[in-house]
Design a protein that fits this description.
single chain, 233 residues, alpha/beta, Rossmann fold, 9 helices, 9 strands, globular
Length: 233
């Protein structure tokens, strides 16, 4: 598989991804509840940017809670699916490797990025862009691949080397993403004027054991994802 831009990569797997993502136990019992738990308790009336909106699950949930959601994704297919799912949202195709300031300087109270930043090569540039979009004391909540788990899982020779990984996801197809270090994550946030409030390596909910025992057992011995809540200073 050749290197693809995020837009082309997501468009290539979007339809397969959309058919299964909402029902995957990994999302239902691990990613969704842990990321939602990091959001502020009251979000009604707040401006939220759903970065890498995918099929619109988070956009739908946050809209139901009263937030005013702007949804963006590199994939035109994903944006279309989100717009169909939540007609009231503002949904745009956005290349996350490009400047984002056109979305509105200091406009958003909250930015969420569920399982998206590992598809981006330059975290320093991305976090700097997101900092400009957030209001003072704005909240940035995201999930991403756990760096050391990826290092072990894909048998990388050098943990400290940024590496483009090609993987095959069952029922979806080939995808590409980057291995980043934990140090790069914390430094990129620091340089973008973010203060990390919480960083979690959680286990899945017990209910996952009944529907996906293999992956449930795996998640009990190593974190699959890292969950972070950071505040713009």
């Amino acid at each position: 598989m050749t290197d693809l831009s995020p837009k082309l990569a997501f468009d290539k797997v979007a339809k397969n991804y959309a058919q299964i993502v909402d029902s995957k136990p990994m999302h239902l019992y691990y990613e969704h509840p842990n990321l939602m738990a990091l959001l502020p308790e009251h979000i009604a009336g707040l401006n939220v940017l759903d970065l890498g909106c995918g099929t619109g699950w988070y956009t739908e949930q946050l809209t139901k809670l009263g937030a005013v959601v702007t949804a963006v994704d590199a994939s035109e297919t994903m944006v279309h699916l989100t717009q169909q799912r939540v007609p009231s949202c503002h949904a745009y195709v956005v290349d996350l490797e490009e400047p984002l300031i056109h979305l509105g300087q200091e406009r958003f109270d909250i930015i969420i990025a569920p399982l998206v930043i590992h598809f981006i090569k330059d975290w320093y540039q991305l976090f700097s862009q997101l900092s400009k979009l957030l209001k003072h004391q704005g909240v940035f909540v995201f999930s991403t691949h756990a760096p050391y788990t990826d290092y072990m899982l894909y048998k990388l020779e050098n943990y400290f080397e940024k590496k483009l990984i090609t993987d095959y996801w069952e029922n979806i197809g080939e995808v590409q993403f980057y291995h980043h270090t934990l140090n790069e994550l914390t430094e990129a946030l620091y340089q973008a004027n973010f203060l990390i409030q919480r960083m979690l390596e959680p286990k899945p909910l017990p209910e996952m054991k009944n529907v996906d025992p293999k992956n449930y057992t795996s998640m009990l011995t190593k974190p699959w994802f890292l969950f972070v809540k950071a505040i713009k200073q």
